[in-house]
Automatic annotation (TrEMBL), chains A, B:
<dbReference type="Pfam" id="PF10728">
    <property type="entry name" value="DUF2520"/>
</dbReference>
<feature type="domain" description="Pyrroline-5-carboxylate reductase catalytic N-terminal">
    <location>
        <begin position="4"/>
        <end position="87"/>
    </location>
</feature>
<dbReference type="InterPro" id="IPR037108">
    <property type="entry name" value="TM1727-like_C_sf"/>
</dbReference>
<protein>
    <recommendedName>
        <fullName>DUF2520 domain-containing protein</fullName>
    </recommendedName>
</protein>
<dbReference type="InterPro" id="IPR036291">
    <property type="entry name" value="NAD(P)-bd_dom_sf"/>
</dbReference>
<dbReference type="InterPro" id="IPR018931">
    <property type="entry name" value="DUF2520"/>
</dbReference>
<dbReference type="InterPro" id="IPR008927">
    <property type="entry name" value="6-PGluconate_DH-like_C_sf"/>
</dbReference>
<dbReference type="InterPro" id="IPR028939">
    <property type="entry name" value="P5C_Rdtase_cat_N"/>
</dbReference>
<dbReference type="Pfam" id="PF03807">
    <property type="entry name" value="F420_oxidored"/>
</dbReference>
<feature type="domain" description="DUF2520">
    <location>
        <begin position="127"/>
        <end position="251"/>
    </location>
</feature>
Amino acid sequence: MKSIIMVGAGNLATQLGLALAEVGFPIVQVFSRTKESAQDLANKLNSDAITDINSLRNDADVYIFSVKDSVLCQLIPNVCRGKKDKLFLHTAGSMPLDCFKGFANRYGVFYPMQTFSKSRKVNFKEIPIFIEGSANDTVQEIRDIASSISDYVISLSTNDRQYLHLAAVWACNFVNYCYSVAADILENKDIPFNVIIPLINETTQKVHDINPKDAQTGPAVRWDKNIIEKQMNLMSSFPSKQAIYGMISKDIHEQNKQ
Amino acid sequence: MKSIIMVGAGNLATQLGLALAEVGFPIVQVFSRTKESAQDLANKLNSDAITDINSLRNDADVYIFSVKDSVLCQLIPNVCRGKKDKLFLHTAGSMPLDCFKGFANRYGVFYPMQTFSKSRKVNFKEIPIFIEGSANDTVQEIRDIASSISDYVISLSTNDRQYLHLAAVWACNFVNYCYSVAADILENKDIPFNVIIPLINETTQKVHDINPKDAQTGPAVRWDKNIIEKQMNLMSSFPSKQAIYGMISKDIHEQNKQ
């Protein structure tokens, strides 16, 4: 099995590292600028923690970057230096394949589309992994690694991947934002959040079978102006949420007219 | 069993009517202004369809209004007239108990918090029903009806119910809107919607156990400005969605700073 070094120890690095270790890849080092994060993940992976990029071993087969996008470009030159024939991968939805260009010979993208938390184990088998590589044989190598942990490995270009990531932000991050607004509203009225769980479940379950546009319900799609106005008033102490409420309602209405 | 008349034949009326009929309530009439809707639901409930409010029988025990909120206030005086001792219920999240005042003696609210589609059968047992009544004995009568179809019957005041409904709009209608934006983005790139289903499922599953604020991931909570700008640019042909993207991202960031 190829030996792997995790560059990064955040949510994604944690779950990906665990999945790779589980199928037998030796994770020989974990790098993070934060000592605690590096050590935490290294403990889970039976690996060595480092916080100094100069301590990186240069004898691993694969280096996987799972870091904040803004840090990725700074790290690449330092990590790739002196490791000519190694395979370098990043896991970022919106970063191009080309960010390795000029710094590495064999490189690629390994983007598992999921929302990860450190403490929450996920079933990687069900997570689609979108891959891209610097050459055909590299793509095949990346595909082999990805297929060992997931049943859904899909080749996707940098350009399409950025739209995929945008869709993921809407379907996950912004959905979770809506949940958090709902949670706040309920909390203010001492209504337990779990009363809304059946509604949340059914909303999600619906789009397994029905196009989301056809699944739309509520005051905005009915253009129940009285209710929309009433609800806008209930949010008057939260101007940003009030504005978002108004814009989404209007957009649902516009979509429905089409 | 009490005999029931459904005033309205939309998504909620359909699923509620089915649930009530299933446990044995005779649904003796279905009223809708649209002949087809009235007939469709009447067929499902083995009931009579009417489109003229003057044809309403006055010998039923319970009259349940499931109509667009803006229509409810117009219908109440006409439906309640000459039916002094009958029980009148509406199913609207944001309409007050008092909209019956002066038109009926025994009345209440029967709000099942769920997203309903005509064609999609739901398990009413799991749906919380929020009730309110004009007097204590009326509340008990409403509770008995509600408990026959759901395991979660909760008394809630008009004031609190409007906040509950607001939370439901965020957790369901706006979540579904986010799904529809994601679906459009994927469709434009010929990526099948089902690749995003595992992400959608996990996002929902997470808030069963974790507070939504703690579950937040993505560029906005990391305040990855490069990515946020890049994604804003990808949406430049859709100015309303671009604006909503910007406002939600900013709000996620602000929340995270608190």
